UniProtKB/TrEMBL annotation:
It comes from Bathymodiolus thermophilus thioautotrophic gill symbiont. Binds 3 [4Fe-4S] clusters. It is found in: Cell inner membrane. Its cofactor is [4Fe-4S] cluster. This is Ion-translocating oxidoreductase complex subunit B. Keywords: 4Fe-4S, Cell inner membrane, Cell membrane, Electron transport, Iron, Iron-sulfur, Membrane, Metal-binding, Repeat, Translocase, Transport. The keyword Cell inner membrane applies. GO terms for cellular component: plasma membrane.
Length: 181
């Protein structure tokens, strides 16, 4: 009986090691085309394209299930970049999905805010700071201008603030850019 347990234990160990090796060796990596498409999208996660965020939209484009002109925050420049990447004819930005609104952020009128947190729940990029029954504010550097918070505000305390295009807000992750001598 002891011999049977020892044999089954050794077989289990060998099979476990083989499965572990196979999981590492044959691991399916993500589609590199999806990664390239996703890198060109503005990462606003606004859902205006009818997808839950930029990554699902990139996956749909790669599968041929979505057109390249459904991203208003990316604008016509984004459509043109996607067309160049995919080597397809460029399309005009489809206005059915909204307008390009990335030249602004939102701000909260703190005197009017009632702390309902509906804006926090609506924000796809967590640009709001606040808590229930406490004044809410916006982290402007995180705001992508998707405007999903405006219609949910019951007291209309969220307003649009135009932004100036600077190098800091034009280049994504500028803090990660390094120079090499």
């Amino acid at each position: 009986m002891f011999d049977s347990i020892l044999i089954f234990s050794i077989l289990s160990l060998i099979l476990g090691l083989l499965l572990g090796y196979a999981a590492i060796k044959f691991k399916v990596k993500g589609n590199p085309l999806v990664d390239q498409i996703d890198a060109l999208l503005p990462q606003t996660q606004c859902g205006q394209c009818d997808f839950a965020g930029c990554r699902p939209y990139a996956e749909a484009i790669a599968k041929g299930e979505a057109q390249i002109n459904q991203c208003p925050p990316g604008g016509q420049d984004g459509v043109d970049a996607l067309a160049q990447l995919l080597d397809v004819e460029t399309l005009l930005l489809n206005e059915e999905f909204g307008e390009n609104t990335t030249d602004h952020v939102v701000v909260v009128d703190e005197q009017v805010c009632i702390g309902c947190t509906l804006c926090i729940q609506a924000c796809p990029v967590d640009a709001f700071v606040g808590a229930s029954k406490v004044m809410t504010t916006v982290i402007e550097e995180e705001c992508t201008g998707c405007d999903l918070c405006i219609p949910v505000c019951p007291v209309d305390c969220i307003h649009i603030k135009e932004t100036q295009q600077t190098l800091r807000n034009y280049i994504p992750n500028i803090n990660e850019v390094t120079t090499h001598a």
